[in-house]
């Protein structure tokens, strides 16, 4: 599994493009500007990747800035834990509290839970529910490489 890390937005939030054998997942579309979103798109195009899944570790405002952009580009919704739904529904309130603007993602139609898996290429990521920082926090674990995105 190849991991392309990015750091975006005024909060310096990480975004990860993970790929294997031409397929990819995007975890936390934290890109706040069109230029930041295009930076991710350029890597997707450079590697000729098919983006299979849009994922959220949690739905705090700094992790969802670019969600609508990627939903529009790829015609799919982000997948998240069920506890993310209230955060997404109140994203404008979160943004106002931090003095920023956000166009929130669509409410997920696929909700992830402990033990679910996400596959792309020859990679399978296991979902762990890891509340603490946020009640909706999940981690994506690749056991063979002992890597996790949290």
Structure description:
This protein is an alpha+beta fold and 150 residues long. It has one domain: Metallo-beta-lactamase, Chain A. Helices cover 26% and strands 33% of the residues. The protein is built from 5 helices and 10 strands. The strands form 3 sheets. Strands 1-2-3-4 form a 4-stranded mixed beta sheet, with helices on one face. The longest helix has 13 residues, at 34-46. The model has no long low-confidence stretch (mean pLDDT 97).
Tally of individual domains: 1
How far apart are the first and last residues' alpha carbons, in Å? 16 Å
Question: What is the oligomeric state here?
Answer: single chain
Largest sheet: 4 strands, mixed
**What structural class should be given to the helix and strand makeup?**
alpha+beta
Per CATH, the superfamily is Ribonuclease Z/Hydroxyacylglutathione hydrolase-like
Helix/strand order: EEEHEHHEHHEEEEE
Total number of helices: 5
Average residue-wise pLDDT: 97
Which strands sit side by side, in order, in the main sheet? 1-2-3-4
- The shape, in one word, is globular
Q: What is the percent of helical residues? A: 25-40%
Quick take:
This protein is of the alpha+beta class. It has five helices and ten strands.
Write the SSE topology.
Blueprint: E1 2-8, E2 13-20, E3 23-27, H1 34-46, E4 50-55, H2 61-64, H3 67-74, E5 80-81, H4 84-89, H5 91-98, E6 111-112, E7 117-120, E8 123-129, E9 138-142, E10 147-149
Parallel strand pairs: 3-4, 5-6
Antiparallel strand pairs: 1-2, 2-3, 7-8, 8-9, 9-10
């Amino acid at each position: 599994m190849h991991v392309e890390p990015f750091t975006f937005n005024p909060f310096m939030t990480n975004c990860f493009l993970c790929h294997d054998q031409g397929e990819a997942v995007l975890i936390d579309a934290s890109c706040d500007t069109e230029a930041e979103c295009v930076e991710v798109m350029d890597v997707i195009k450079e590697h000729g990747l098919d983006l299979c899944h849009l994922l959220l570790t949690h739905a705090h405002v700094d992790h969802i800035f670019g969600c609508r952009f990627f939903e529009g580009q790829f015609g799919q919704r982000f997948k998240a834990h069920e506890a993310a739904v209230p955060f997404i529904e109140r994203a404008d309130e979160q943004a106002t509290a931090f003095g920023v603007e956000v166009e929130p993602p669509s409410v997920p139609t696929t909700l992830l839970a402990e033990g679910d898996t996400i596959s792309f290429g020859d990679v399978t990521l296991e979902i762990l529910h890891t509340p603490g920082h946020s009640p909706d926090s999940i981690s994506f674990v690749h056991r063979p490489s002992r890597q996790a995105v949290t």
